[in-house]
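Record 1 of the preview.
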Amino acid sequence: MKVCLGGTFDIIHDGHKALIKKAFEIGKEIYIGLSTDELVKKLGKKAKSYREREKQLREFLKKFGEAKILPLNDVFGPAIEEDFDAIIVSPETEERAMEINKIRRNKGLKELKIIKIPYVFANDGIPIATSRIKNGEIEEGKRIKPMKICIGSKNEVKIMAVKEVFNEFFDEIKIEYESIEVKTKKQPFGKEIIEGAIKRAREACRNADYGIGIESGIREEDGIFFVEQYVAVMDKLGYITFGKSPSFQCPQWILEKLNGKEMKEVIPFKDKEEMKKGAVWFLSKKITRLELTKLGVLMALLTRKNF
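->
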């Protein structure tokens, strides 16, 4: 199988290593496109010279075997016309591979098999990237700067849940927190719940390493109405992961009273402390909203570790 991949390879990190390793696992002929100095400049990047990058790439390839290095004068390179069988990509470059296949189809050429490897994460759960290494955020896959987390809500329970889970999940990293108010639909239903979580996360992530969005609402499934809570965790590179708290069936008397109102306006909580504990606590007198929210946040972080 003839396999291709490409990149700038200014600093060869674990993400690049995973791409190259996969290429040698599945391919007999390996072709690596290396961005020329002209392309680097055109893309608005800064990198070592082509000669330096080619030298370090050839040195690294000695660990794997023979590969042909081709200069990339544009973002597509020879992949739009050569008789390759497959292209190795990361989640970040998958869309580019789909563009390549579209061009190949228009030319009457066979499509390349797109083989996507998962992100390789630093110990802060954010994908390793050359830009992060250059900015002094990470070194050898480890966070060396404090991490900033922004929560897209002023709700005390949500803030507390995020802090407790993140402090435990990233116990070796110094974390700074802030929260901002984000307006979403008053009483979301169905897909509006996850849309609200994404909106909160995206707005919170503008000036932070992570933006956290937590949204609860009601979703119907096979005629049954569930109270659900979604968590969206977006990092500064735009990668987003999701989690969900345990859901429960919404009692009929609550459904009848909602009619555009929020849950907290319908359930007869005695005081603010009971309101903080949430609807499931009111119904069970056992499980609090904080406990449910922490589970959702944890679920959203689970795939941010290397396996």
